[in-house]
Design a protein that fits this description.
The chain has 136 residues and is of the alpha/beta class. It contains four helices and four strands; from the N terminus they run ββααβααβ. Helix 1 crosses helix 2.
């Protein structure tokens, strides 16, 4: 999962959001939960706990899915969240190709709602403040 550091709005005045917080996260294993489609979120449960019943798996996914409203909530103010995605997580597909194709466009769609800002980082990636590839 993506480690996320959450800071209150007073700790980070540059967040530009009164009453909300700002969070910065860097992850390398999976696309962070707030940027996941439901199908992508379900895949780790299928792989790591195959003996888990379908009803229990759906319950766990539903609990996880409830967090999707955090970045667009009005009260309390949603935290500003900036996540740097490792290129590796985008190149590590899940077996369902249609679901993976939908997942690749999902961070952009979520960012359009406001409050979330994805970026690409990692070896050769364009991380925050880097305008060009390290190798060139």
């Amino acid at each position: 999962m993506c480690p996320v550091e959450l800071m209150s709005g007073t700790d980070r005045p540059s967040s530009g959001r009164r009453g909300g917080g700002a969070a910065v996260g860097y992850g390398g294993e999976l696309i962070p939960g707030l940027f996941q489609t439901r199908e992508y979120a379900a895949e780790p449960f299928r792989r790591k706990t195959p003996a888990l019943g379908a009803a229990e798996r759906e319950r766990l996914i539903a609990v996880r899915w409830q967090r999707q409203g955090i970045p667009v909530r009005r009260l309390p103010a949603a935290p500003a969240l900036r996540v740097v995605l490792s290129e590796v997580v985008l190149r590590r597909p899940i077996p369902d190709r249609v679901a993976m194709a939908a997942q690749l466009g999902h961070p952009r769609d979520v960012a359009a709602l406001g409050g979330l800002r994805p970026g690409l980082g990692g070896p050769g990636g364009a991380g925050p403040g880097r305008g060009r590839n390290r190798n060139g």
